[in-house]
Amino acid sequence: MMKGVKVASLGISLLDGTRIVHDVSFAIEPGKVLGLVGESGSGKSTVAKALLGYAGPGARIGSGSVFIDGEDILALSEAERRERRGRIISYVPQDAGMSLNPGLAIGTQLIERLAEVLTSVRLPTDRNFLARYPSELSGGQLQRIGLAIAVVGRPKLLVLDEPTTALDVATRNEVLKLVSDLSKDMHLCSVYVSHDLGVISAVADQVMVLYAGRVMEYGEGAQVLGAPAHPYSHALLRAVPTTLGRKPLEGIAGTAPDLRSRGTGCVFVARCPIGDDRCAAVEPALVVKGASSIRCYKPNAVEAKTNIVPLPLAKARGEQICAVRNLVARYGPLDVVRDVSFEIDKGECVALVGESGSGKSTLARCMIGLHSNYDGTIAFCGDTLPRKAETRNGDAHRRIQYIFQDPYASLNPRRTVGDSIGLAVRHFFPGSRQDVLDAVRVAVERAGLSPDLMSRYPSELSGGERQRVAIARALVCKPDLLVCDEPTSALDVSVQASIIELLRGLMADGLAMLFVTHDLAVVRSISDRVIVLQQGAVVESASTEAIFSAPATGYSRELLSHALNVRPAIAS
Amino acid sequence: MIGAIIALAIVGPALAPYSPSELVGVPYDIPNPDTLLGTDSLGRDVLSRFLYGGRNLVWMAIAATTLGLSIGIAIGMASAYFKGMPDEFLMRLVDIQLAFPSVVFALLFVTMLGPSPLLLVILVGVSQAPSVARITRGAALGVVERDYVQWARAVGIPTRRILMSEVLPNITSPLLVELGLRLMWSISLLAGLSFLGYGIQPPNADWGLMVNESRNALTIQPWAVLAPILAIATLSIGGNMFAEGMSRAIGRTEGTK
């Protein structure tokens, strides 16, 4: 019988001595999955890679041991470790498609034990399938090939680094199920890294919450996610939207500490609602209590808010601001949006929901004239808009604003933040330098940013800050309609929560919104009405409450059934 | 190094002991205190001719390169931004121009219209433009798809301003490397044309021309050939290294995408 995986006081530091992972210990029994959760920069991926004996450029594993079936792989030579990678330890990256050789047919890439392994990951085994190249497979199939390659050598430890982040919900759930089943059937120890608490709650038996390279809380999954004892775990859970109800989302104030220049206290103290002088002075030790451990002086001090307080919906429907009629949009000969009609009222948020390829982003781009190959009409305040952005008038340019999905690409890297926003001000409201500066400052503050950021370049900002800058840039235009294309999908949950709250605040000021997303939990927390798209056509259009409580079509029901929610433990 | 050569080309005439076309001694005189590098086939002072000879070459090369870059960048950015038909049209135009060897292209017009500095600058500039257009288009294709350019389109910022202030600043790295290469090519092309007798006309002093005039006396007066050759080589290689260094320095301050 296999002994499982035992990691003891793992420490990883940068070459200048900064400790990026501090004293991480855990044990995994065969057949079990450990979930590593945390925000970006928490060290979760670093820990996962260290299990392969790999520290990444500029870092080294300073201390600790990783026993896999009784053998400490950190004590081995590099050559011995390399021999064990892929054989007893396997790794599945976020994007398995990228790690496959595009020039080799997939059959060639996994010649051994083909049929057996392919069956175990539920892929076909016929010759035709094996002769395909990676580009001929879907994202879900590629991820399953990645899994197949990982388990083909009958490894003892399987490390999965966000393998489902890029997948649609339905495919994601299949892969998650596969990971659980494979772990059980092959008696694997698995480590699953994700920032998505819903995914972790679905797949993991045990959960470890990391923050700034330290273990904050570690224990049984149901315990940690259902009734968290650490204030950070609490804060994370409060930030997660759910399809179960329209609850207010709370972001976590502040930012993660700079590991080079932090004090001696608890790493979370600056953002902790219950931190005190002792927390700031001396870092609490990790206290082991039965099966779980926690690093906090005051466990369970944050009151659990398990019941969902529903938020009121927007005011009664007022005047219509935008109407889309019989929209058919094409890419070349392909219809990607088919005969879609809807209206948006003032101060209302309409969500456009669908899987990738449903045409939702194309539709959003038609709204602002970036996709002009369409039939049908888009009317704004009663006037039909020209198709191309270049031929629309200044009023339409100003009153419809767009928030892009990727905050890393939506700001010119050569302009400072203030200059980027100022460009919009100067374009629509030409005025003196001081007027422009004042307008920028007001918008920056409205978007919840410090005015100090105005002189920084985008590369110096975090993803959440960049998205706020993009929102500020939209706000200075004094828009009436904001088109948001998955504005939070690239962000951490705590950041997502604060952005959603910001957008909700803007709606209270009378802004109408078209919110494009695939995330139903986000939809429930912000939108008033939902339009479900499937392959470019409207499947269902109803109020948010109606869709979530009684979906009328099979497709909506299916989408809803794929949503993963973290369920609070009952009366614990 | 490059600075020294350019400085030499600019202030050289002031330092020269004689006028470049003045006859100061017997032909092919060996170096002596009066004429430090000796005299050429007509008895003119080689040092003076060398000091004068860079001036025309340097300013013409810089002017031609500037012209070539401007035309090329304009074509390349327009091509990348508008795509479709305009792109096809401009790129085919560029291909046709690229198919002509630039020396032949320049010779054709010089023989038709007669040599003049302005014509040379235009010819060399135009013959540089296609490859600049190619590089610009390649670099700009990625940038025009980025969301900040799309945002600028969506709010109706005029296309010319989008290209100048959103696209251009983000493709400077490859363009600076190209600038160095083009400068080097301009110098060798201009020097080459002079050498062939289609560039700067005698009795003006010019490094390319000097190589030609003095090559008959290569065995007795190698410095009259070597000095201009070394100057041309240093100038072109130095220009290239300088531009590459600039682009690296900019790339470093740029940080991550």
Features of this protein?
heterodimer; A: 572 residues; alpha/beta; 8-stranded mixed beta sheet; 6-stranded mixed beta sheet; 32% helix; B: 257 residues; mainly alpha; 10 helices; 0% strand; elongated
Can you describe what's shown?
- The complex is a heterodimer of chains A (572) and B (257).
- Helices cover 32% and strands 24% of the residues of chain A.
- The two termini of chain A are 35 Å apart.
- In chain A, the strands form 4 sheets. Chain A has an 8-stranded mixed sheet, with helices on both faces.
- Chain A is of the alpha/beta class.
- Chain A is globular and about 75 Å long.
- Chain A contains 21 helices and 22 strands.
- The model of chain A has no long low-confidence stretch (mean pLDDT 85).
- With 257 residues, chain B is mostly helical.
- Chain B is elongated and about 75 Å long.
- The model of chain B has no long low-confidence stretch (mean pLDDT 80).
- The interface between A and B is medium-sized, with 31 and 19 residues.
Name the pair of protein chains with the most residues at their interface, and give those residue counts. Answer: A-B, 31 and 19 residues
* Number of helices, counting only DSSP H or I runs of 4 residues or more of chain A: 21
Q: Tell me, rounded to a whole number, the average pLDDT of chain B.
A: 80
Rg of chain B computed from alpha carbons, rounded to a whole number of angstroms: 22 Å
Contiguous low-pLDDT stretches of chain A (5 residues minimum) are none
The portion of residues assigned to helices of chain B is over 70%
Helix tally of chain B equals: 10
Instruction: Give the N-to-C terminal Cα separation of chain A.
Output: 35 Å
Strand element count of chain A: 22
Helix coverage percent of chain A? 25-40%
| Structural class category of chain B | mainly alpha
Instruction: Report the β-strand fraction of chain A as a percent range.
Output: 15-25%
